[in-house]
Design goal:
Number of strands: 10
Number of helices: 8
Distance between the termini: 36 Å
Largest sheet: 6 strands, mixed
CATH topology of the largest domain: Lysozyme-like
Strand content: 15-25%
Radius of gyration: 18 Å
CATH architecture of the largest domain: 3-Layer(aba) Sandwich
Length: 235
């Protein structure tokens, strides 16, 4: 695939080993335009960058070389990993985001993203469940790539984890649903919550989960459907 180079100086100079690359984190730019986004990703003042950016036409630009650590994830956790910048490749999709008028991702964008992800997956032997959204690894701070991102479609290409429904009837006691739901999230890799006690921040974690797996119902409440999806993902 054709990839244009427009390198940013915003990255950690220490190179990482190939075997340490375990994740791909998907973002949206959340800015008014592609030009503005690239300008921000190159500006030393802002200390942000990504490895790749894909515009609305599906054109791919590399901004940081894969062996270097780009500054895209920020404070983040997933399973035993902290600061996902060290272990991941960051891909930005040009989209105005929730602040400026959240758009559907274009077919060209998603087509290019799938091609790029397949290439990265093969090169670094990245597990399909390690393709994540920014909101998965930083649910208290971030909402991107958001509920319009087609995770289900990507899962057809073994990019990202998705669930399969079983015929078994699952009904959970409402008194136990919160504890069981967060136990499932713990297994999946979500962090920043306590599965033993209720916390006001837990609502943000629930919304992050729903944005990824139940995009038509981002209520922040654990209903039976939300719980069932968490169950299907962990069996």
């Amino acid at each position: 695939m054709k990839i244009r180079l427009d390198l940013s100086t915003n990255y950690s100079k220490k190179r990482r080993l190939k075997r340490n690359l375990k994740f791909v984190i998907i973002h949206y730019t959340g800015m008014q335009s592609e030009i503005e986004s690239i300008k921000r990703l190159k500006d030393p003042k802002y200390k942000v960058s990504c490895h790749y950016i894909i515009n609305r036409k599906g054109d791919v630009t590399q901004m940081v070389r894969e062996e270097n650590i780009a500054w895209h994830a920020g404070k983040s956790k997933w399973k035993k990993f902290k600061n996902l910048n060290n272990y991941s490749i960051g891909i930005e999709l040009v989209n105005k985001g929730h602040q400026f008028g959240y758009q559907n991702f274009t077919h060209q964008q998603i087509f290019s993203l799938i091609k790029l992800c397949k290439k990265i997956k093969k090169k670094y032997l990245i597990k399909k469940e390690n393709f994540l959204g920014h909101s998965d690894i930083a649910p208290l701070r971030k909402v991107d790539p958001g509920e319009k991102f087609p995770w289900k479609k990507l899962s057809i290409f073994k990019i990202g984890k998705w669930y399969e429904k079983t015929s078994n009837k699952i009904e959970v006691n409402p008194k136990k649903i919160e504890t069981l739901f967060f136990k499932n999230l713990q297994k999946l890799g979500f962090r920043y919550f306590s599965s033993n006690k209720s916390n006001p921040k837990n609502k943000m974690i629930i919304k992050a989960f729903q944005r990824h797996y139940l995009p038509n119902c981002i209520s922040g409440k654990i209903d039976q459907k939300t719980y069932k999806i968490s169950h299907f993902l962990t069996i």
